[in-house]
Amino acid sequence: MQKLTRIITLSVSIAVISGCSYVGVYKRDIPQGNLVTEEMVDQLQPGMTQEQVTYVMGRPLLEAPFDAREWDYVFRLDKAYAGVEQRRVTLTFDNQGRLANIEQEGDFSQDIPLEADSTGGPATDTTDPTEAIPNQPRQNTTPSTTN
Predict the structure, then answer these.
(1) What segments bear the compositional bias annotation Low complexity (predicted)?
(2) pLDDT tens sequence across 62-71
(3) Domain boundaries, the chain
(4) Contact 44/54 with Cβ under 8 angstroms?
(5) CA–CA dist 23, 81 (Å, integer)
């Protein structure tokens, strides 16, 4: 009977421990949208053309579907072990396509640290794509001359 009690206690303990995330699950920061910094917004001046704004800020994430004069730049960072940080810049253009109004939401005073993922990713133009494939035999690419 004592042996059965130990087996049941051990089984219940293992079941409870396996269901708990005591160690935790790996989480990573998830950035979404246009990265908008204070330096970018400081470069904006009323009267700039849409092309000049695109050069400074990039293409907007959202263009109002019924009014092409309003551009929204939205950036959202879902921090893995903290909260969510959101920034939004809404730019309004006049009828001549000149920047008329700049509205900001969020805290632009701090830089957002974004870590580059150095593990994996697509091959760059300067590398041979076959070098990115592990354990693949390399083929001879020189043409053979057979007569």
Answers:
(1) 119-132
(2) 777 777 788 8
(3) 28-111
(4) no
(5) 14
pLDDT in tens, 77-119: 888 777 888 888 889 998 888 999 988 887 777 766 666 554 4
SS (H, E, C) the chain: CHHHHHHHHHHHHHHHHHHCCCCCCCCCCEEEECCCCHHHHHHCCCCCEHHHHHHHHCCCCEECCCCCCEEEEEEEEECCCCCEEEEEEEEEECCCCEEEEEEEECCCCCCCCCCCCCCCCCCCCCCCHHHHCCCCCCCCCCCCCCC
Handedness of CA 96, 100, 102, 103 (dihedral sign): negative
